[in-house]
Amino acid sequence: MGVLAFVTGLVPCPLTTFIMVYAVAQGIVAAGLLVTAGMALGMIMTIAGFVLAAVLLHERFMLLMEHTHHLRRQAGRILEFASATVIIAFGAWQLAAR
Questions:
Q1: 3 occurs within a structural domain
Q2: How many C-beta atoms surround the C-beta of residue 32 within 10 A?
């Protein structure tokens, strides 16, 4: 699994490729590298933030899931009923439009 992540990371981001092609065409390679490094740093910080939040908030999240079981079940039933109603109404509307 780690090999797949490593190999995927070797493929350049399309936006990064565009930025570098533009920077080379304009003769500002250093600026292109700085922008690319900034994007990479932003992605690293975002992913690290989500990982840190997941680790630190795991216990609270599990406790929340236990306390809201009934509410989530009711919401699921309501959403199932609403979506089925919308699908049936849409089908009936399509049949009536013929």
A1: no
A2: 19
